[in-house]
Amino acid sequence: MEIESYVVVHNIAKRHNVGTLARSATAFGVTELILVGRRDFNAFGCHGSTSHVRFRHFHSLNDARLFLKEKNCDICGVEITDGALPVNDHPFKRSTAFLLGNEGTGLSAKECEICDFFVYIPQYGSGTASLNVTVAASIVLHHFGVWAGFSERTRDGNKFIVAERPVKQGRRNYCAETSDSVIEERKLKKENGSNAFFDESKSGESSSNMLDVLFGGD
Hints:
By secondary structure, this protein is of the alpha/beta class. It contains six helices and eleven strands. It starts with a strand and ends with a helix.
């Protein structure tokens, strides 16, 4: 059975962290980076890594959970909870998706509900209460890669060899979808009004050009 890892991105306050998460994801063998809610993202800090990891989008956490369960994938919350296990104990059993909390408030109750178990990163110094979300992701993904026995990438001098860019996202910093998904998103926006995830005014993209992105030329 092939072991895979996923990263679920939901409710991260600093959108530029997605680019850095993508860089860590490619370094540690993540299969897909799953965006929940908003589809556009800031690729600052990715250093080209967004071309080497697949992005998938879901409108809700429950939709993401159903997809991951179809993959026979555990969902692991990275959070300091009463029942959380230290990540260095490698408490993994199968393919795993990692859900990291908001930089300020951590995982919400709704996010915790979809998790099968939790891990935390032990700290040994007294100067900070928690780690940056991208730092935490890197540590956890590295531990999972060690447990899963992922093959180390070939090195050339003091760098690892970067593969050719195989993935085309359709539009830079945007997770493209089918026309049905676009219609569903518009329906949700009508029903619920604009919110933090569906408000596209900040990104400079209007909903009217979504179908153009999906079916237009390169």
